[in-house]
Amino acid sequence: ISKKKYSTNVDERNYLTVFEYKLNDNNWIIWDYSTGYVFFTGLWKSCGNNKTDIVKLVENFPNLSNAVKRVRGGFLKIQGTWLPFDIVKNLAKNFCFNIRYCLIPIFG
Fold first, then answer.
1. pLDDT per residue as tens digits for the range 14-70
2. The total number of structural domains that make up the chain
3. Is 55 in contact with 70 (CB distance < 8 Å)?
4. If both were cysteines, with which of 12, 59, 96, 104 could 92 make a disulfide (CB 3.0 to 4.6 Å apart)?
5. In what order do the strands lie in the sheet with 37-39?
């Protein structure tokens, strides 16, 4: 797990301070330790899901729409859907079975 800082204009600080955990060659779990938000797109894709299906997921769970933060523009690695840590942890129980052991350092 490494600590990084990414510039972005979607946050009042103009940057995100994150912990990164590499799952495989192309996917990372990124957690903004200042806000508690987790980069859900990376976790979703690491399980073999299509990132466009995140829209369907949010539509199926209306309570998620108020919690979603979307990052567009800026550094490509942080672009996508961000959700609070507790929500991501609960959602991961439903679709991350094949990488469950890789997630222990993040979710316990």
1. 888 899 998 877 888 999 999 999 999 989 988 888 888 888 888 888 888 889 888
2. 1
3. no
4. 96
5. 2-7, 15-22, 28-32, 37-39, 80-84, 69-71
**3-state SS, residue 101:** helix
38-56 b/e with 16+ CB inside 10 Å = b? bbbbbbbbbeeeeeeebee
| Both tokens assigned to 44 | 């979703």
> Which domain does 39 fall in, by range?
2-107
Residues 41, 89, 24, 31, CA torsion sign: positive
Q: Rounded to an integer, what distance in angstroms lies between the CA atom of residue 3 and that of residue 107?
A: 17
Which tokens is 73 given? 């523009």
Candidate ranges 42-46, 56-60, 81-85, 96-100; pick with highest mean pLDDT: 81-85
The residue behind tokens 């979703």 is: 44
Look at residue 40 in the predicted model and tell me its pLDDT: 92
* CATH code of the domain containing 94: 3.10.260.10
